[in-house]
Amino acid sequence: MNKKIKSLYRRVGSKNIFLIEGVAMEGIHDGFVFSDFQKQKTFTISAELHSVINSEDVLNLSFIAPKQTNWESTLREDYEFGFTIIKNEIEHKKINKAILSKKKVKNQRVNVNKLFLELCDNYQASHIFLTETINGELWIGATPETLLEKKDVGYQTMSLAGTKESIDIDWTQKEFAEQRIVTNAIVGELFKFNINPDIEDLETVKAGAVFHLRNKINFETNESAITIANALHPTPAISGNPKKQAISTIKIAENHEREYYCGFGGIVRNGQVENLFVNLRCASVSSNQICLYIGGGITKDSELTKEWEECDRKADSLLRLL
Question: Which of 14, 132, 191, 258 has the smallest count of CB within 10 Å of its CB?
């Protein structure tokens, strides 16, 4: 397959916008990697061209959106069905957390180049990307979660969970419990590689229109970082816990495919992970619609209406810029 495609990305806290363009290859190779939730449509854009560009260059690029689509938003009754399924599994002690997602569709033509720049301007603490895919789709996002990042010494990942709409609202035991589940599960995965990580203090971070709890997790290893990234993905922050049972529950609870939502993306160089993000706060774009994917963690203390509204607040991160 010799199809050439391209991607734009900007890392957390950076001012530099990168353009990468090259042949699309299935699987993980050197270049810009982009993977779906189920790791069945993973591809890499080889770095035939990989350079920093300015805002004017971004606006002059041509990104091809798929032809007209007929996407539909998730109905409240379908979300409620999924919520009930997950709650039932929690009550029967099969799982203690699962992420329930929904789709929110807007019928409008989107200037993705302009939206990408708006996301860069508004969300310094997020990974921003706009990418064509190997199968002709177009995805854009601003995600607060890092899957794996190379540091001067070793690597860093993070546990990210819990959501509140204002810094003035106190965190509750529900969010603290949710965060502990995610942190413990990530540490448990690292233990399998005989890695004893250093967990930084719990902090509150802003991500678009909402706030989350976060622990940065640092470690050193001689194991392949790609192997570790594959073991960590999907983290409990996007699947649940225990992971295998949570994913099985999600398949029943959700009536849509997640596609690249809750997948991962980023740069691999010389066979090593440089930076991979978890694909949250993202959307698929066609010539006549934009379809946002948003979700939240359901635990024993979750309430249906609050979870539905939390998803809408997360969607505002992108929607308010349209």
Answer: 191
The residue to which tokens 């991160």 are assigned: 317
Give the per-residue pLDDT at 185: 93
Tell me the CA distances in angstroms from 254 to 141, 183, 187, 197, one per residue in order. Answer: 21, 25, 28, 34
* Contacts (Cβ under 8 Å, ≥6 apart) of 304: 80, 83
Domain count, the chain: 1
Tokens of 164: 């509140």
What is d(CA 93, CA 47) in angstroms, rounded to the nearest whole number? 47
Strands (E), 151-280: 155-164, 198-199, 203-207, 210-219, 240-241, 264-269, 272-278
Nearest to 235 by CA among 282, 187, 275: 187
Quick one: tokens of 322?
A: 């349209």
Q: What is the mean pLDDT of the chain?
A: 95
Compute the distance between CA of residue 19 and CA of residue 56 in angstroms, rounded to an integer. Answer: 13
pTM of the model: 0.94
| CATH number of 157's domain | 3.60.120.10
CA dist., res. 185 & res. 181, Å (int) = 6
pLDDT in tens, 40-76: 999 999 999 999 999 999 999 999 888 899 999 999 9
Please, which residues have CB within 8 angstroms of residue 239's CB and are 6 or more apart in sequence? 98, 99, 246, 247, 250, 262
Q: How far is C-alpha 256 from the geometric centre of its chain's CA atoms?
A: 17
Domain span holding position 252: 4-319
Residue in this structure with the two tokens 């969970």, named with its chain if needed? 161
For 167: left if phi > 0, alpha if psi spans -120 to 50, otherwise beta; the answer is alpha
Single-letter residue type at 154: G
* DSSP annotation of 125: T
